[in-house]
Specification:
Elements (H helix, E strand, L loop, with lengths): L3 E6 L3 H16 L3 E2 L8 E6 L4 H20 L4 E6 H6 L3 H4 L5 E3 L7 H6 L4 E3 L20 E5 L1 E2 L10 H5 L3 E2 L2 H13 L4 E5 L8 H4 L4 H9 L6 E4 L9 H9 L3 E6 L7 H7 L5 H11 L4 E8 L6 H11 L6 E6 L4
Parallel strand pairs: 1-2, 1-3, 3-4, 4-5, 5-6, 7-10, 10-11, 11-12, 12-13, 13-14
Antiparallel strand pairs: 8-9
Helix pairs in contact: 7-9
Length: 331
Amino acid sequence: MNNKVSLITLGCSKNTVESEAVAGLFVKEGFEITGNVSQADIIVIHTCSFIADAQKESEQCILSAKNLKDKNKNLKIYVSGCLPQLIGKEFIKKYPFIDGYVGTGGFEKIVKLIKKQKFFSSIENPSGVNNFKRRILSTTLPTTYIKIAEGCNHRCSFCLIPQLRGDYKSRTIKSVVDEAKALAACGIKELNIIAQDTTSYGIDIYGKPSLVMLLDKISNISSLKWIRLLYAYPLNISYDLLKIISERKNICGYIDIPIQHTNKSILSKMARPLNTVEIIENIKNKFPNIVLRTSLIVGFPGETEKEFKELVNFVGQNYFENIGIFGYSDQ
């Protein structure tokens, strides 16, 4: 079997981590990873479909791969991730030229499935990649991401994540710390902690929020000089969490907290925490040196001019160093 594999990763940093883990599994099974798709015997496209533009990009990438296959009949194309998970059994009807697909629940199985050299389709209950020990980093920079959980238990009215990724599933503290140590040993100096919701970490396996305990252990890895917390859901941001962030020299005094809006009526329609404003004000009052970033949605169905101005006025209070603003899309 020809064994040169090209992995194409679309979407967010969580997809990047998954692809790096799977690249390690490919190498373990005797495959060769190549960044040149024209030299590949196998192309694996790890897709995203979180928003309409991401789904469109994934679909365009699959069709571009088809053009390569039209020129090279021996080329094998496999697709993984959110797009197959979203479409399900209709996927092969839409893309009959592919050689197999898996959803978000079985990405790590794709290597052995490809070795069988048979068409396969697999849409399972999302669980995420569990084997991160053999990651092949996709950059030579001394910075990377570490994924501490998969899925989400929140049911925000605008979000597809639970449908694509399933319910929240934390990794064990030991598995995350072991991976952090391995990354540090490879020369990583900056570690970005990610999940769909980092502040709910550990509740499902330890019975309580355990991000502080995890940060305590990771920050004791002396060669890690910079640890940053991303995707922090507003709930479960505790005093102890803010305290360890402000006290540990190698934990960046920065939190990414997507609040989406400030008006209680809109937050209720979004199925988001109604005390978002109070949470942000409390953080800045007690720990003014912690820098905040957020994401906002404007044009949510039913949003009035008054509610929009309320959001604008809150932004004008300069609680946030950086803000990502997105127009609402129902696709």
